[in-house]
Design brief:
Layout lengths: L64 E3 L2 E3 L10 E4 L8 E9 L5 E13 L27 E2 L13 E12 L8 E7 L4 E2 L5 E7 L5 E3 L7 E3 L2 E3 L16 E8 L1 E10 L12 E2 L2 E2 L13 E9 L12 E2 L9 E5 L5 E6 L5 E7 L2 E8 L18 E8 L12 E6 L7 E7 L2 E2 L1 E3 L3 E2 L7 E2 L7 E2 L6 E6 L6 E6 L2 E3 L9 E4 L10 E5 L4 E11 L9 E8 L6 E7 L12 E5 L5 E5 L5 E8 L2 E8 L8 E5 L13
Parallel strand pairs: 18-26, 28-38, 29-38
Antiparallel strand pairs: 1-2, 3-4, 4-5, 5-7, 6-16, 7-15, 8-14, 8-17, 9-10, 10-13, 10-15, 11-14, 12-13, 18-19, 18-22, 20-21, 20-23, 23-25, 24-26, 27-31, 30-36, 32-35, 32-37, 33-34, 33-36, 37-38, 39-42, 40-41, 40-43, 43-44
């Protein structure tokens, strides 16, 4: 290669994700110098080094730079700081460690392990030892590149044959100071891949190991591509040029290593004793070239829906939502190895788009935890009180068969749309206190007013039931829809009761309090139309006073059948002029006791039985009234 041709473009990127500079060994570790922070969107300042990069990616991660439409981690080779881990310098098999070459998106410092795998040169007598694996001092301005040098034996040709040479590297990325692999996304850019008229015409070439997503060239290029090999023209570029038409860039998504080969060949024979300029390769991982176009692929898009009816209509649909409960949610694009390729925040209207996705098999994951690119998928979380309802690839009926916030997609040559997720909010159980009731004493039940149980569904769903979760304290029994439970017989899983939309039970709930003043608390959860329960229980509280007091009286009597026997479990109700009621159930022998009635008050007393019909009675209570019996109408 040749002397530097100055071509730089100062870039500034205004973003809410910005960072302060830091240095390691007085050298910048990457094109973006940062202080690692816990949040990708922390408020700081971004400083990009001078790069001829344009067309920033729509979404970029912290600690990564936009490079020809893709967010990448920059890697800066520093030959002055490298050490030899194994082997002998400038000999096949040598492995160098370049310390702190970059920072992964999550703030992890990265080293590069660079191994020379092979070397061949038809005009060099020694096929094991080469001039230099990296020669930054000879190419000022390109110190951050990996730059091998290929030359003839003692700078002259050995024979009259062609000149064919190549050197092959393996570049591995590891956690700094360790041998632990660390995946990152890189744009492996080969610059100054030109030719000359030496030996009948010389063409340089570079090759990239398989696994890249795409090789990018400039819109106007002098090079040709065949598979993973990019071959130069015969044209010679003056100096160490960084012209885009002599460069290529292979995009590697989430890799911990790749191989790169620099070589050349002549179309004719050389003359023994003759000379040619040295041929230097140059590998750059800091987005040094503006190709005039971006890496291109297809878009993947979809919507996160507030799906209040879930899959009851067999469809993931509803109203788009991106900030449920005021909390931002994200969709991650995850590769087949479980590493994040890209992350986008969901828009307020529920839509999201990955503008550039390369062919392959991916998983989309919804979470309120953002995570980092080139890292394992973030934990799956949702805003408080929200739950998943389904996923589907397509706008019509259907789902992926598992309600888990993940959706598999296969990307080919066409855009993928309607990769949709459904979420909804759980119902909320309320806390209400009923008016105080008088303890009737004995084994007489009190009725819980239905309005003491309340619930709401805040996102448009419907409350359909409640579940009393435990046996209440201070009661001998609780009776639900006519079924009596004691502490010994109350079901472990509770008792579910259908309700109206306000959470008021559609079945009667009664209880037999212990003697004396008591506060009865019944714990319950609300259930919505999809069967989701409220996270926190609600309470129905019923204060019970000590019993009959001055100015109060009781009514006792018996409800009989046609055969003259007592009728069990008939409901006897005394209603005062103001509409207030007192009720009691008859015992197995038909006797009842209504307590807590106001003296000097007229009451309408009625009987409700499944077997018989009784005439209502009008009585004035001046004191305790006994013997108020009922017989069926004939």
């Amino acid at each position: 290669m040749k002397s530097l041709a100055s071509l730089f473009c100062l870039l500034f990127f205004a973003s809410s994700a910005v960072f302060a500079q830091f240095q390691v060994n007085s050298k910048k570790i990457s094109a973006l110098s940062v202080v690692p922070v816990a949040s990708t969107f922390a408020t700081t300042t971004v400083k990009y080094s001078d790069r001829a990069c344009s067309n920033f990616a729509d979404e970029i991660s912290a600690l990564a730079i936009p490079c020809n439409g893709i967010s990448v981690t920059t890697v800066t080779f520093n030959a002055a700081a490298r050490t030899i881990e194994t082997g002998t310098n400038n000999t096949v098999g040598v492995r160098y460690r370049y310390p702190s070459v970059g920072v992964a998106p999550d703030g992890t410092f990265v080293d590069a392990l660079v191994t020379v795998l092979s070397y061949s040169n038809t005009q060099d007598a020694d096929q094991t030892t080469f001039r230099d694996a990296d020669t930054p001092s000879a190419v000022t301005g390109f110190e951050e590149n990996l730059q091998p040098s290929l030359e003839q034996e003692s700078d002259v040709f050995l024979n009259n044959g062609p000149w064919i040479a190549e050197i092959r590297y393996r570049i591995q990325f590891v956690v700094s100071g360790t041998s632990t692999p660390r995946v990152i996304t890189i744009a492996a850019t080969s610059i100054d891949n030109d030719g000359s008229n030496s030996c009948g015409g010389l063409r340089e070439n570079v090759s990239y190991s398989p696994g890249f997503a795409q090789i990018l060239l400039s819109t106007t290029t002098n090079q040709s591509v065949s598979g993973n090999v990019v071959t130069s023209p015969l044209t010679n570029q003056a100096g160490i040029g960084i012209g885009a038409n002599f460069a290529s860039s292979a995009l590697y998504l989430n890799v911990s290593e790749f191989e790169w080969t620099h070589g050349f060949s002549t179309s004719g024979n050389c003359s023994a004793g003759g000379a040619s300029t040295d041929r230097w390769g140059s590998l750059n991982l800091t987005c040094q070239i503006n190709f005039g176009q971006n890496f291109s692929a297809v878009a993947v898009s979809g919507t996160v829906f507030n799906d209040v009816n879930g899959l009851t209509d067999a469809t993931v649909n509803g109203t788009g939502i991106g900030v449920p409960g005021g909390t931002q949610v994200y969709v991650s694009l995850i590769d087949s190895n479980g590493n994040v390729v890209s992350i986008v925040p969901v828009n307020a209207n529920g839509t999201y788009t990955f503008p550039i996705v390369f062919p392959g098999n991916y998983t989309l994951q919804l979470s309120s935890t953002q995570g980092f690119e080139s890292s394992a998928a973030p934990p799956q979380t949702l805003p408080s009180n929200f739950v998943l309802t389904g996923e589907n690839l397509g706008a019509g009926a259907g789902n992926d068969g598992a309600v888990d916030g993940q959706l598999a997609v296969t990307v080919g040559g066409a855009a993928v749309a309607n990769a949709n997720f459904g979420i909804q909010q759980r119902p909320i159980a309320g806390d209400e206190t009923a008016p105080t009731q008088v303890n009737p004493g004995g084994s007489i039940n009190l009725t819980v007013p239905p309005g003491t149980f309340t619930a709401t569904d805040p996102d448009g769903g419907t409350v359909t039931a409640i579940r009393i979760t435990s046996f209440p304290s201070a009661v001998a029994s609780i009776t639900i829809n006519g079924i009596q439970y004691t502490s010994a017989t109350f079901p472990t899983g509770g008792v579910t009761i259908p309700t109206n939309a306000a959470g008021n039970p559609l079945q009667t709930v009664e209880f037999d309090p212990f003697e004396g003043p008591r506060t009865i608390i019944i714990a319950f959860v609300a259930i919505d139309n999809l069967g989701f329960e409220s996270l926190n229980p609600g309470t129905a509280t019923i204060p019970v006073s000590a019993g009959t007091t001055a100015g109060e009286a009781n009514i006792t009597g018996r409800v009989l059948g046609n055969d003259g026997r007592g009728v069990a479990r008939a409901r006897v109700t005394a209603m005062a002029p103001d509409g207030s009621v007192r009720t009691a159930l008859t015992n197995p022998f038909g006797f009842y006791l209504i307590v807590g009635l106001d003296v000097n008050t007229a009451y309408v007393v009625t009987v409700n039985s499944k077997r018989y019909t009784y005439e209502q009675r009008f009585v004035t209570v001046n004191e305790n009234l006994t013997g108020l019996d009922f017989i069926p109408l004939h």
